[in-house]
Amino acid sequence: MAYSKYKWALSIRVMVLFFLLLGLAFTVSKLDFNTNLSIAIIITLLMAIIAVFSFLNLYRFIMKRFAEMDDFFESVKYRDFSRWFNETSGSQDIRTLHKGFNEVNKTINAINYEKEAQHLYLQKILELVDTGIIAYNIESGEVLWGNDAFKNILNVPSLKTIHFIKDRKPDLYKIIFENNYAKGDDITINIDNEKVKILISSSVFLIENINYKLIVLQNIEDTLNRNESEAWRKLLSVMTHEIMNSIAPISSLAETLQSKVGLSIQDSDNYPLDMNDLDIGIESIKKRSEGLLKFAKTYRSLNKVTTLNLSKILVGELFDNIKTLMLPSFKEKDTDLIFESENTTLEIEIDTYLIEQVLINLILNAVEACKGVKNPKIIIQAKKTIGGQTVLKITDNGKGIPDEIIDNIFVPFFTTKKTGSGIGLSLCKQIMLLHKGNIQIKSIEHKGTSVSLMF
């Protein structure tokens, strides 16, 4: 729009000047200078003056706009985008031109503000990370930017130039600044007479024909120590959790047997001791203790296990072992534990001790899920599918698993329990994979959960 108005204003002035010059030429050609010399001179001078004024007006019109544009370009040259051009006075095209200049300045100011905000944001992030970062001028050694982590790793004060390190720690300077680590390397450096292992990488970049070097350091000694400590803490937590899961039913069964023996010693007539029950109970304790020992050894090298101690066992016998272990503790929990098998001759080839551990884990999880539920019930079923798979299914009517976490329940150390280790289900899955089987969970929140072990 501004260009259109400017075009019309310029065209009118050019046409006026053209017609004035044309009229002047016509008048000069028609006047009789011999008879009316004075009149001819006056008319000629008058039209010439008007033409000169018209030319000057056109010149000022054009030069004023060039001056405005030159003024704007001058401010751009010196990056003065704070200037405000008057939009309320002058001709309409000048005001429109000023408005355009102001819009450009506002846009550039907004871009600069955004870049500055991003720069500050990035700088704050880099200052907070544990990774040491420094960028410096290769020729002068002047530090362009460096974060606190870099100074802390090398134990140096604030740096204006890297020559400070060169003067005071020449060996460190040679290793860090003179060598190139384009692909990244782990090296050992000496900091205050202590050896520290760090991961280092470097690269060179160009800004305005000046070469800069970027160096990134990470103290992997501390990271390795923290990871090792955390791994040991989790391992101890997991082992304690899994061992307690097995010891609890053993302890409960032993307490029951001890109570029966004690009552029989005091009054054998009214409380006769059933030797068969005693033998079964002791045998269950023996087997579970052996299973616990085997579990500890297996867990220690679970990722290296390639063979299992497989044997065929009747599902009914497997269920009886679990029932003998778990029922005494269930009497106190007021929870129904039901075992169902559609075929009494159904056999399964498994590592009995490990699968018992899986079943104990899943039953205890079901007990936890049934807390606070009316008429809690846990059903353990065994069946053969049409495809020939043997499926052991543990179903409860507990609280269920929320949809937002069900995809994470097999992730090691993921747990929603305050005292849980987050390894139980992960370990169950690993044991099933060792059996070339699978584990699946279906759950409806507030209705219950079913876990299927498929062999």
TrEMBL record:
One Pfam assignment: HATPase_c
Annotated keywords: Kinase, Membrane, Phosphoprotein, Transferase, Transmembrane, Transmembrane helix
Domain Histidine kinase: 238-455
Residue ranges of the TM segments: 12-31, 37-59
Broadest EC class assigned to this enzyme: transferase
E.C. numbers: 2.7.13.3
GO terms for MF: kinase activity
The keyword Transcription appears for this protein: no
Catalytic activity entry: ATP + protein L-histidine = ADP + protein N-phospho-L-histidine
Keyword Transmembrane on entry: yes
Protein name, as recorded: histidine kinase
Organism lineage: Bacteria, Pseudomonadati, Bacteroidota, Flavobacteriia, Flavobacteriales
